Amino acid sequence: MNLHGIILKGNPYKEILEPKKCDCPFELRGLAIPPDGVMWGLMVKCSFHNHETAKYLDGHEYPSRLKSVEKQFVVEMAGSTKPREILNVLKERDSANTTGIQSIYNTIARQKVAQRGGLNPTQHVLDQLISRRYLHAFMINPATNEITDIVWVHPKSLDLYINFPTVLIIDATYKTNEYRIPLLEVVGITSTMQTYSLMFAYLANEKSDRLTWALGTLKNLMVKKEALMPSVFVSDRDLALMKAIGTCFPMTRHILCIWHINQNVVKYCSPILGSEMPRFYASWHSLIKSSTPESYQQKWHILIGEFKSYPRATKYLWETWLQPYKERFVDAWLDTCMHLGSNSSQRAESAHARLKLYLGDTMLSLDTSFAKIHKMLRIQFGSIQKSFERSLNIQRHKQRTDSIFSAVICLISLEALELIDEQLQYANTASPYIAGYCNCTIKVAHGLPCMHDLANYRSLCIPIPLSDIDSHWTRLCMHADRSNDDQPRSDRTSEVVELLQGMDPSTRDNMITRIIDMTDPSHSTIRSPAYNTEHRGRPAGKSEQSRRRIPSILQSYTSGSRGASNSSPDASVTIPATTSRLRKDKPTSSPMSDPFIQELPGAYQDFISHIVDVQADGHCGFRAIAAQIGYGEDNWAQVRMDLIEEIQTNMELYNVLYPENNYANTLLHSLAWFAPMAPQAYWMDSMSLGVVIASRYNLVLHTFDTYHSGCFTHLPLRSHPVPVKNRREIAIARIRENHFVQVFLRHHYPVPPTPLWWRQHVSIEARGWVDSYIVRMNLWSEIMGGGPGTSGGEFGGDID
């Protein structure tokens, strides 16, 4: 029987069942059996068909209907799974299932209508905001009664802010809704370095008045909860957003996103400088990493002098960025506030990417996008709570066995312990005598003890006091103190009635309508936002781009480089340890046209990734070492002190190593200079100090010169070899006869030979250091045509 439809005719006890559209004469007559009509009888009126029996049931309405169990499954999966995936699962479960995709869409649509309970999408959103206890506000267009702007904050998000008000990052994203209006999101950072979403806002546009209203609404919620104002706001240089932040949070430090600044610098300056751009960018990067205003001024004058042939580029840097905004992104000013390492809007960008994964569509209605954001927040809160529980209950082995952590373990977050542990790696070589007098950035920027403080605790054999840890890291809970919420509230109904009675009739009616809109959405007449035809998005002709952040120009230039650890606490230049962002089969780029590189031996230039300059003040050799080992360029004095301590502690060894003319004491004298400008007698001699540096810091040091005969590899004299994968390998070069710079090398670079005196005086334990470099030393000899002599050269040769 090919039955397609039901037609009711006249008698309520009769149903005529007959096919639709194909004019088939087949007819059944159903008759309810009296007296109660529970039982039915069927009678065939016409048994003739004008078509063949269907071989397949696909496309036929009755057999393609969803069963009740299948409908329930579709409803449960609709919130997190695409309809086509739901259909695939149904067909995998039942091979005879003939349901089509339209049935899935219809079931989901019917469920949405049922969930709304007769409310339109806008009424449903307002109802959900109230029932789920969201803190919210909205603005409407009086002429059309359409929502123009809406802000909402989850109560748990506000609790998280009360506990973690230090840093907020704000950014807008696009293509999240069918109205084509921007979505503004504000995120914060917990003690476990998790990102929490504080506020969402759909705004009609990104003009300063709209942004000021949204941020003003957020500030009012903070004030009601008696929360602290944020210490730091991070955003890009959106002038309207900057104005809104300044209006609503005038006492909050405002940091500009360094990633966006660098992208703008590259975009503007690359056409001007051409092949000089890599060297220009390295100087710019060194400038913004200046640790003091004095260092910033010196580097700025150096940059102007080096690129005086490109006044447009230097003028752009000064007028667009440095003069108006240097306090908002240069480290010398940035590190005077606690910013938790957030000098870019990357966290907000990552939050946008995560949000769009949940939204899954760029044309969602207001109620659908709200429902999906709510589900995302539910998962986010669970992840944050899990991170708190881990910090409260997990003791990692290296911290459990070290007594210095005994007073803070399980009382601060695991992430804070990891940051302290990174500093602890440098505490063994740091001086405890300058604890409390140093300018290490981690103390201010993160609120944690630095390597000098830790060295002091080690020397005193005491644990880290909990009082040395900022309270941001000690808060490990989701809920804020709600003692004020428990206080009895006065009944202010009479005040509201009195205010309404004092208004003119039209204003009173408008106010009553607003109250109804906020308290009883079922009677609201508010409509969904209007469609925005002037929306922001990808410019025409641009291809689809990945959500992943594009590597900065410096990362692109330094791909595959070695010579710096990416875990250094105060490194002046961050070098990626791997090139995971790039295609593995991508060929190595050709060497840059860099005057610094061109001063080194020509046969070796292809193995150099890039060079980073340091300040030329007589301390440049020590600055280059300080930057490479993670102290930061401006901590050159610490390197001098470390080397003095190394020679004094092992004076007998160095007297044997340097027997002529009491040369060990001469080295000590050359190291003992801590004034800003060093005379020539106190410049670094890399030939004689190379092995001292390698032994002190237990690393491999490559020193390069303009002639290959002056290039050497310096290895430790006393310690057992460190496994190759864990070794620190750094490089410096002497150029322009008396100036040192940092050198970063590509993978599998040829290795210069060791000096003769190392092979003569190395201990038995340390001989294995050279084994892993023999093949690459032979490669050096082949490339350089025999390499330098093995005598090691003459000592001396004063170098700046």
TrEMBL record:
User: Which residues fall in a compositionally biased region of kind Polar residues?
Assistant: 521-531, 553-580
Q: Which residues form the OTU domain?
A: 609-746
What is the superkingdom listed in this entry's lineage? Answer: Eukaryota
Query: Which residue ranges does the record annotate as region Disordered?
Result: 517-596
Q: Which Pfam families match?
A: MULE
Q: What is this protein called?
A: OTU domain-containing protein
Q: Which organism is it from?
A: Actinidia rufa
> Mind giving the lineage of the organism this protein is from?
Eukaryota, Viridiplantae, Streptophyta, Embryophyta, Tracheophyta
